[in-house]
Amino acid sequence: MNKPKVSNAIIRRLPRYRRYLGYLQTKGIKKVSSNELSELIGYTASQIRQDFNTFGEFGQQGYGYSVDYLYKEINKILGLDREYKTVVVGCGHLGQAITNYTYYYKIGFNIMGLFDVNQDIIGKVINDVEIMDSSELKDFVTREGVDIGIICVNRENAQAVADTLVEGGVKGIWNFAPIDIDIPKDVALESVHLSDSLHALSFMIKSLNEKEQ
Is 175 within 8 Å of 191 (Cβ atoms)? Predict the structure, then answer.
């Protein structure tokens, strides 16, 4: 049987559920109801139940959800019950920040290689990983069986880097370059346009100011 298609909206909500369930774990809370999750997260209780029911029955009526069990199941759904071999291409300020974040939070993405074209930083070591010349990228990705490529280069070079990563056999690309890139349909793509988020914030501030006038 084919699995039912999961909407993009549900996929976007799952990491938020995981994050709040992790918070409940740190507080020693063992069970939680959809109403309690609603108060904590902001989604309606009905929406939360519908989202969870997309993947099966995780709770019991009158009991609620086991926090530990639900956290574990969402990890499985998100594919976070395994480790991903990862490389970062572009080791300027943003690339180094992403590398440090991934290293210190131990979130299942093992950065195996760092790459750049800048000869001044090639050879530098970040969290025990040496920055290599980008000319070595394709061979490294192919040889090591890298799953994910993180692009932190400028817009002019982003597509060429994406092409190299795809040729090397990556399964997914996390793109921070300020441009949309084209990749085959069998490679997953998540683009993070930081300016879009900042512009959305600007709109919200503008809207609040207009309400006050």
Answer: yes
Query: 197: part of which helix (H) or strand (E)?
Result: helix 194-212
User: Between the CA atoms of 100, 105, 106 and 112, what dihedral angle is there, to the nearest 10 degrees?
Assistant: -10
Sheet strand arrangement including 31-32 = 31-32, 64-66, 59-60
Residue 60 DSSP SS3: strand
Amino acid at 155: R
The answer to whether residues 113 and 135 touch, using CB atoms and an 8 Å cutoff, is no
Q: Are 115 and 144 in contact (CB under 8 A)?
A: no
Instruction: State the residue for tokens 């970040």.
Output: 126
- Which element (helix H / strand E) includes 174? strand 172-175
What's the one-letter identity of residue 182? D
State pLDDT tens for residues 4-57. Answer: 578 889 999 999 999 999 999 999 999 999 999 999 999 999 999 999 988 877
pTM over 0.90: no
pLDDT tens per residue, range 83-121: 999 999 999 999 999 999 988 877 789 999 999 999 999
Q: DSSP letters along 67-90, please?
A: HHHHHHHHHHHTTTTS-EEEEEE-
Tally of CA atoms within 13 A in the half-sphere of 148 that contains its CB: 18
Distance CA(21)–CA(126), nearest Å, equals: 31
